[in-house]
Fold this sequence. Notes:
By secondary structure, the protein is an alpha+beta fold. Helices cover 27% and strands 25% of the residues.
Amino acid sequence: xxxxxxxxxxxxxxxxxxxxxxxxxxxxxxxxxxxxxxxxxxxxxxxxxxxxxxxxxxxxxxxxxxxxxxxxxxxxxxxxxxxxxxxxxxxxxxxxxxxxxxxxxxxxxxxxxxxxxxxxxxxxxxx
Length: 127
């Protein structure tokens, strides 16, 4: 459950930076549950200035297009290819490979996305 809250904290911090108010939890207008699951469609209801792109399929080309616009995708993977589901922030490309920030990596440096293998879904939140 701790791992889920990293994504929630990223979203909360971004929204607080723009709106100077915290995201509500649970209930009719909550954007995350007590277990740390994000309720994506509630974010837009509460903060209409936020744009959310929820991709229907994984596309390296589309991810690259967002990166070119300085919009950083969140991707859902499994920790080291077989563990728990986990969200990473893609921050760029190096040697034709997506580089991501992984909150579980103690180095706090961008790591290749390939460390985690398959991307199961992805989203982009931007203002």
